[in-house]
Amino acid sequence: MDSAAKIPDVIVHDTKRNWLLLIEAVTSAGPVDDKRRKELKDLFAGCKAGLVFVTAFENRRTMQTFVSHIAWESEVWIAKEPDHMIHFNGGRFLGPYPDAMPAKP
User: Fold this and answer.
1) Burial 39-48 (b: 16+ CB within 10 A, else e)
2) Phi and psi of 11, rounded to 5°?
3) Exposed, middle or buried by CB within 10 Å (0-12, 13-18, 19+), for 28?
4) C-alpha to C-alpha distance for 62 and 79, rounded to whole angstroms
5) What is the pLDDT of residues 60-101, one digit of tens each?
6) Which is it for the CA torsion 96, 52, 82, 11, positive or negative?
7) Phi, psi angle pair for 9, to nearest 5°
8) Minimal CA–CA distance to 72: which of 103, 31, 101?
9) CATH superfamily, with its number, for domain 4-87
10) Are 26 and 55 in contact (CB under 8 A)?
């Protein structure tokens, strides 16, 4: 990786599906917006796992202040409601999109 400063707050590898969940705590650097989503895609460009972009919030009230900045084709997780996620657009829930899948050899 080029820069430790650009690494997401939490990285989870779902080995069963070969996904990397790239989780940003909104309190550290803001939400996964369009710019951050592109930065993460570029940072993990050589990755052989699908990328899932997640912004983590403490509660819905905090999310409301950032909702207009959250990137499409990303997910939101709220600590006060840990059993649920909010999906921003697209044809699937919690999974990498074609533009964030590893290149096929």
Assistant:
1) ebeebbeebe
2) -125, 125
3) exposed
4) 11
5) 999 999 999 999 989 999 999 999 999 887 666 667 777 777
6) positive
7) -60, -40
8) 31
9) BsuBI/PstI restriction endonuclease, C-terminal domain (3.40.1350.80)
10) yes
